[in-house]
Each structure stands twice: as structure tokens, then as C-alpha cells.
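lol forgot to send this yesterday, sorry. C-alpha cells for the thing we talked abt
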């Protein structure tokens, strides 16, 4: 395979539907080894619509370019309670990616 699978985690805020299922929010991504492009992404948000939104937001982004662009898109476009957890999980995912390339 020409891809790697990485997960980023963050604690969910209280009062969220997903918290009744998971204690943490996880973003997973399948990433092209050579270009660093996110081929597929998913997360543990409770609604399918939310999971699809995050997948579309991340798909096609190259982690070689950092994560500033998807972070800004998350901050501006996702206005739910899980925003801070999504940002933290994405930063954790990127940290895992960077540790592989050092």
C-alpha cells in the first residue's frame, strides 16, 4: 500500500451526544505516503452529516503544507460544540504525521 493510517484524539466537551458513546473525539486519516495528501478521513462525531462534513473538509489536503488551512476552515465553518475538540484532534493527528517524517 502507498498509504498510512493515522489517528488524532481529543477530549469531548460535556453535553455532547457523542460523549454518551465516546469519551474522546477521534479523527482518522488515510494519507498518501509520498505526497502527504489525505485520501480519506473520518471522525467520531455523533451525526453522519458532521462526519461527512469533516471528511470533505480534510480530503485532498496535503499535510506537507501543514494544517493551517484546514484549521481555519474548521474555525470558520464548523460552529458546533465539538469545534475545539476537532481542532485539538486535528493538531494531534498532524503531530503524529510529523513524528513519522523527522
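and heres what i got for the seq, position by position
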Amino acid at each position: 500500500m502507498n498509504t498510512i493510517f493515522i489517528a488524532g484524539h481529543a477530549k469531548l466537551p460535556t453535553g455532547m451526544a457523542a460523549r454518551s458513546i465516546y469519551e474522546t473525539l477521534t479523527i482518522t486519516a488515510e494519507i498518501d505516503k509520498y505526497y502527504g495528501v489525505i485520501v480519506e478521513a473520518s471522525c467520531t462525531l455523533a451525526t453522519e452529516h458532521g462526519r461527512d462534513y469533516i471528511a470533505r473538509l480534510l480530503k485532498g489536503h496535503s499535510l506537507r503544507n501543514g494544517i493551517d488551512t484546514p484549521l481555519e476552515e474548521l474555525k470558520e465553518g464548523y460552529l458546533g460544540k465539538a469545534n475545539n475538540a476537532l481542532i485539538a484532534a486535528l493538531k494531534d493527528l498532524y503531530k503524529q504525521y510529523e513524528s513519522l517524517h523527522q
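Strands lie at 3-11, 24-32, 38-43. anyway ping me if u want another try
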